[in-house]
């Protein structure tokens, strides 16, 4: 059975989607910043000596030379410096067209790549979508390929590349990148690195590793609930439903109205009454028809077992309610009350419930007929409007033809280009 992705923002993906919904901003995370190191010495590639380099923040600031300094350059250096000036002027404009022109001048020129990289990072921080993440990973890799001498650290390049691979369900590739990231970068973004690694191991069925990394996320992190659910999923796949329930229940206490958590807690529970309560609550929170149908099927299975047991107390003729129909109509509470009785009292409760079902179905039939009549009337009105439009078009065409017939006829005399009336 295909595993369910744990992190809500990409899950869906994600890429609900959309939300995707990671609210943290790197600019607020001090572990991203570190000390700024400026270097002015000769460095490869040689044009980087004209830049102040901030390795930690992936910045390269151009330092114009004086006229005397330019005079002392060799001919090849002057040509290179002239190119650097042109590219810098384009980059200073700060718009996409100028960035593109600068990049086209030299697609391995590191400052141009940094401009794209930092723009992608800014976009990703403001909207955590898979598209923005892929763009950031692309420019991370482009920078990595151009920066062959390691001017800038590779650790964040690997972090974003792993992040992108994980978001696209490429779990083995994600681990290859993420596990190369050193410890000092693993706590950024509220320990999200541990969530990605744990979930990747989970998806690859390396369940003990998933549990180990999930447990490294502290309760103070905003990712803690995701870690709890990752651990719960791993324990469930190991067949340890008790531990799965315990971790899911911790998440439930912290976020009691999360459909995903309620649903999985019900799956891990070994108490039918608790399962029914949780499924019913999840049904109220479900936002799509398929989830509702799935929950109805699970509740029906439990109720049918309960009905089978209760029916043993009845003698003589009785009409058992259609359990699936009852659940689909949202009458679970009525069925639960009925099943509290035994014997003739249960018979009476069944009769009452069946009458309620028939009444609802009759109203649904009536509403369905009314809806069909309304749809037919709307179709009739639409056809009339369509006929009126066609008639209006025909009238316009006839009017134009009449105008042409009434108008004088003209002939061109090409020798001088004038127009005379016949």
Offer a quick outline of the entry.
By secondary structure, this protein is mainly alpha-helical. The protein is built from 17 helices and five strands. Strand 2 and strand 3 form a beta hairpin.
Description:
There is one protein chain. This protein has 422 residues and is mainly alpha-helical. It has a domain at 1-185. It contains 17 helices and five strands. Strands 2-3 form a two-stranded antiparallel ribbon. Strands 4-5 form a two-stranded antiparallel ribbon. α13 runs antiparallel to α14 and α16 (332-338) packs antiparallel against α17.
**Strands of the largest sheet, in order across it?**
2-3
* Net shape: flat
Q: Supply the helix-strand structural class.
A: mainly alpha
Beta-strand portion reads under 5%
> Could you tell me the number of beta strands?
5
The percentage helix is 55-70%
| Sheet of most strands | 2 strands, antiparallel
Mean pLDDT: 82
What is the CA-atom radius of gyration, in angstroms?
A: 35 Å
Order of helices and strands: EEEHHHHHHHHHHHHHHHHHEE
Spans of at least 5 consecutive residues with low confidence: 4-42, 407-422
Spatial gap, N to C terminus = 86 Å
The number of distinct helices, counting runs of at least 4 residues, comes to 17
List keywords for this structure.
two-stranded antiparallel sheet, two-stranded antiparallel ribbon, 422 residues, 63% helix, disordered C terminus, flat, 5 strands, mainly alpha
Task: Outline the secondary-structure elements.
Layout: E1 16-19, E2 51-54, E3 59-62, H1 67-71, H2 75-93, H3 96-105, H4 110-126, H5 130-146, H6 155-167, H7 171-178, H8 188-203, H9 207-214, H10 224-237, H11 241-254, H12 259-268, H13 272-285, H14 289-311, H15 323-328, H16 332-338, H17 343-406, E4 410-413, E5 418-421
Antiparallel strand pairs: 2-3, 4-5
Helix pairs in contact: 2-3, 4-5, 5-6, 6-7, 7-8, 8-9, 8-10, 9-10, 10-11, 11-12, 12-13, 13-14, 16-17
């Amino acid at each position: 059975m295909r595993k369910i992705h744990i992190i809500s923002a990409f899950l869906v993906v994600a890429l609900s989607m959309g939300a995707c919904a990671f609210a943290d901003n790197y600019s607020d995370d001090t572990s991203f910043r570190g000390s700024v190191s400026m270097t002015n010495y000769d460095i490869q590639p040689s044009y980087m000596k004209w830049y102040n380099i901030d390795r930690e923040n992936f910045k390269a600031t151009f330092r114009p030379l004086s006229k005397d300094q330019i005079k002392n350059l060799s001919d090849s250096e002057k040509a290179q410096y002239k190119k650097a000036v042109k590219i810098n002027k384009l980059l200073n404009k700060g718009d996409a067209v100028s960035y593109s022109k600068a990049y086209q001048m030299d697609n391995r020129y590191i400052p141009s790549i940094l401009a794209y990289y930092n723009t992608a990072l800014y976009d990703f921080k403001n909207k955590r979508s898979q598209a923005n993440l892929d763009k950031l990973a692309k420019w991370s890799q482009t920078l990595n390929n151009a920066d062959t001498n390691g001017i800038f650290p590779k650790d964040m390049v690997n972090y974003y590349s792993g992040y992108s691979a994980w978001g696209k369900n490429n779990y083995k590739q994600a681990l290859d990148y993420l596990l190369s990231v050193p410890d000092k970068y693993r706590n950024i973004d509220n320990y999200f690195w541990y969530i990605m690694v744990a979930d990747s191991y989970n998806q690859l069925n390396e369940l003990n590793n998933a549990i180990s990394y999930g447990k490294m996320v502290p309760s103070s992190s905003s990712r803690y609930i995701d870690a709890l659910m990752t651990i719960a999923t791993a324990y469930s796949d190991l067949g340890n439903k008790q531990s799965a329930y315990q971790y899911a229940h911790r998440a439930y206490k912290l976020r009691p109205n999360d459909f995903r958590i309620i649903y999985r807690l019900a799956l891990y529970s070994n108490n039918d009454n608790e399962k029914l309560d949780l499924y019913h609550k999840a049904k109220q929170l479900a936002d799509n028809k398929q989830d509702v149908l799935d929950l109805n099927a699970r509740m029906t299975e439990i109720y049918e077992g309960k009905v089978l047991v209760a029916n043993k107390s009845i003698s003589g003729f009785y009409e058992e309610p259609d359990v699936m129909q009852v659940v689909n109509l949202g009458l679970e509470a009525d069925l639960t009350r009925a099943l509290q009785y035994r014997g003739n009292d249960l018979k009476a409760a069944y009769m009452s419930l069946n009458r309620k079902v028939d009444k609802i179905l009759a109203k649904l039939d009536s509403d369905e007929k009314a809806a069909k009549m309304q749809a037919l009337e709307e179709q009739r009105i639409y056809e009339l409007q369509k006929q009126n439009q066609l008639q209006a078009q025909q009238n316009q065409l006839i009017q134009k033809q009449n105008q042409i017939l009434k108008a004088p006829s003209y002939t061109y005399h090409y020798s001088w280009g004038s127009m005379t009336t016949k």
